[in-house]
Amino acid sequence: MSENNFVKQESSIEEKELNPMSGWLALIIGILFIISPTLGVGTLIAYDNPIFLVITIILFIVAIFMFCGLKIVNPNESVVFVLFGKYYGTLKKPGFFFVNPFVSAINPTYESQMTKLSKTGEKDSDDESTTSNTKKVSLKAMTLNNQKQKVNDELGNPIIIGTIVIWRVVNPTKAVFNVENYKTFLSIQCDSTIRNVARLYPYDSEDTEDHREKSLRGSSQEIADRLKEELQKRVEIAGIEVEEVRITHLSYAPEIAAAMLQRQQAEAIIAARKKIVEGAVGMVEMALNSLSEKEVVELDDERKAAMVSNLLVVLCGNKDAQPIVNSGSIY
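Now predict its structure.
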């Protein structure tokens, strides 16, 4: 099916919100239909009068249909109805209502308890999260804790990444009719979005004075906004609104974790040595200038070179220097 045909099919079903009759009024009418035959003396002659008996049976059947049409909708819930295979309407308002007794609620994620018990083996937690034990469509904010998956970053390094998605259904009609299972659809689209966005950024980057490259580890807010924007475009067809996407786990894959750790350690050591050398050079320069200004001692070029060498060894060494007292001349 082409994209144009799919868009045409999607637009053919527009959400129609129902405004049904109050369920309390229907309940009272149903009760009256049941007890009305017993309110008169006609009850005593019900068996002698066939017309009265027929009316009693009809009223009793109508009362049963009235009771079958009673529906309770809780806050932040909705019910999508179909009538003989055609879309009937969506009930979003919370309360107690009466609808057409012949309509049936539909929810693609619904799975009865008997169906669950009939299946052999234990179900994974992911399977539980994509099913529901009610035919009502929840409009509450829900959490999708996607499994960790291995992807490649911009440099081709394999990394392990996991995300959490805060989402809600805003159009129950689209969620029910446009996709087979909107929860499974969201999970699959989330995996695809993570893989697509992760390949655009490196895991980590080096900070320089002139430029700071964006990375998965250093630009968490921007990555989250990019994931949310792209995921929202993918799930718009299912009537889902993505409120937030966050990275919950980010690490190198085990096969390169040790090598990348050594690389990070080497970069840290180099950065630390650079700071030490810069500080040592400044201290040596300060010492020479101070000795020269206060005229404590006059040093020629050779003595300055020896002093600089000794100070750099003392300041940049990994171990404490062992002092050596020279009682004679250096010449």
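The longest strand covers residues 240-252.
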